[in-house]
Design a protein that fits this description.
single chain; mainly beta; four-stranded antiparallel β-sheet; 32 strands; about 0% helix; globular
């Protein structure tokens, strides 16, 4: 499917939802990863140079962790909120006790840059990717699986919802692994390079954002794939709504939202909803985790223009609310109750926006 061209910019109407800045602080560098704790009581912010700051939801800096001396790359909280996992360019996964601010465990991955880390939703497993190697540890930090069989450097990993399988994406396609199998459960082959991977919440589909300015939809069971092209930039921004029906994509200044139930063929041949507001390229998209019939999930967008905007794409093409910052937005993360947004900026900005 070829992406249609968006005509002009949309003039925002009066907002029906408000965004209020509760607090704002400035850390010493580009915010590369930003995560709410599972109970919503704290925010972890990592800067690209290495240090990690734990903040309260009132903006108080509780701890500054040294992180990774050569640079931190990603963060993920254990579901119980006590441990925070981080990865970096030093070849290690570090586990931090966020009640004391000290390093609890050090897991050696490889002599490579460790790019991604992800806890299983149960908390029983921790996965991290470095180079072509995916490693998985159990809850006691025992290494239980190492998967080398990838054609190139792993760009992203994601646990398949409702299972103990994990997908790794790289040049050549996506590989699905189980914990107890030395060979892949499945390969989804594609002669191209993917940068990010996102599962639909019901695990029936996953999407990849690709180097060649395209988006791939993959049907997990059949392996059938659809490709959408016509984007302005490499595709790094993907977010599914909680119903698994809509996929929001970036790849330019406009938000592009695909309806996977547009026809019997899914999104193939359909026209997406296109949302215009940002005057610079998008850098992050994220849907709320839950919704009701009367209140569909809100989609948040952040761009290089410093603007954060809220949308309900299936209710209209105009933003609900917007809030500006004096720095390009690098990170957005919803609080567990979907009532607040943590914002990270390229200049070290960390802020909390609340919905009204």
């Amino acid at each position: 499917t070829i992406l249609p061209r968006h005509k002009g910019r949309i003039v925002p109407p009066p907002t029906t939802v408000t965004l209020e800045r509760r607090w704002h602080t400035l850390l010493d560098g580009h915010i590369i990863s930003l995560r709410f704790a599972p109970d919503g009581s704290r925010i972890a912010a990592a800067i690209a140079d290495g240090p990690i700051t734990i903040l309260s939801t009132t903006g108080e800096q509780l701890y500054e962790l040294p992180g990774h001396g050569m640079g931190t790359t990603s963060l993920d909280w254990h579901p119980d909120g006590r441990l925070l996992a981080s990865t970096g360019q030093d070849g290690y996964v570090r586990l931090w006790d966020t009640t004391t601010g000290i390093q609890a465990q050090l897991l050696h991955h490889s002599n490579r840059w460790v790019e991604r880390v992800a806890y299983h939703p149960s908390g029983r497993y921790l996965a991290a990717a470095a180079g072509r190697e995916l490693r998985i540890w159990d809850g006691l930090a025992n290494l239980i699986a190492t998967h080398h069989d990838h054609a190139s450097t792993i760009a992203d990993i994601a646990w398949k919802p409702g299972s103990e399988a994990i997908a790794a994406v790289a040049y050549g396609g996506t590989t699905l692994w189980a914990l107890d199998h030395p060979t892949p459960l499945r390969r989804y082959n594609w002669k191209g390079s993917s940068l990010v991977l996102a599962w639909s919440p019901n695990a029936s589909l996953f999407a990849t954002g690709d180097q060649d300015q395209t988006v791939h939809f993959w049907y997990a069971e059949s392996g059938h794939d659809l490709q959408m092209w016509g984007y302005e930039t490499k595709m790094r921004e993907l977010s599914w709504d909680p119903t698994s029906r809509y996929l929001a994509t970036g790849g330019g200044r406009d938000l592009v939202v695909w309806d996977t139930q547009a026809s019997k063929k899914g999104p193939e041949g359909s026209k997406p909803v296109m949302l215009g507001l940002h005057e610079a390229y998008l850098s992050v998209l994220t849907y709320q985790r839950t919704e009701t019939k009367s209140a569909p999930a809100i989609l948040a967008s952040g761009g290089q223009d410093g603007l954060v905007a809220l949308w309900r794409p299936n209710r209209g093409q105009k933003p609900l609310a917007q809030h500006g910052f004096n720095t390009p937005i690098s990170q957005l993360h919803w609080s567990p109750d979907d009532r607040a947004l943590a914002v990270g900026g390229e200049d070290g900005t960390v802020a909390l926006l609340t919905l009204g």
